[in-house]
UniProtKB/TrEMBL annotation:
Name of the molecule in the record: Transposase
Species of provenance: Vibrio syngnathi
Superkingdom of this protein's organism: Bacteria
Length: 80
């Protein structure tokens, strides 16, 4: 018997600040630049005044250099 197999996926975006012992995360059913920008916004809001967050990205399609431009306290580094 032939049976169709369908899968549902979830994607986790996460970040941590070991020094402060805090983190931010979202779980979403798909990924794109808007979702990544939303996560960077979370990071920006959690970053204390006078501090700067650095996010290391692995070069996925939605990890573009322009996504952090609107946040003056977040920078991204692409590893590819």
């Amino acid at each position: 018997m032939v049976k169709q197999q369908q899968f549902e996926y979830a994607y986790l975006f996460g970040s941590v600040c070991p020094e402060r012992g805090i983190g931010e995360a979202i779980v979403v059913p798909w990924v794109n630049k808007d979702i990544m920008t939303n996560h960077l916004e979370q990071i920006s809001k959690a970053t204390e005044k006078g501090r700067h967050a650095v996010v290391i990205m692995d070069g996925a399609g939605w990890h573009t250099d322009d996504i952090a431009r609107e946040f003056n306290n977040v920078s991204t580094i692409n590893t590819n």
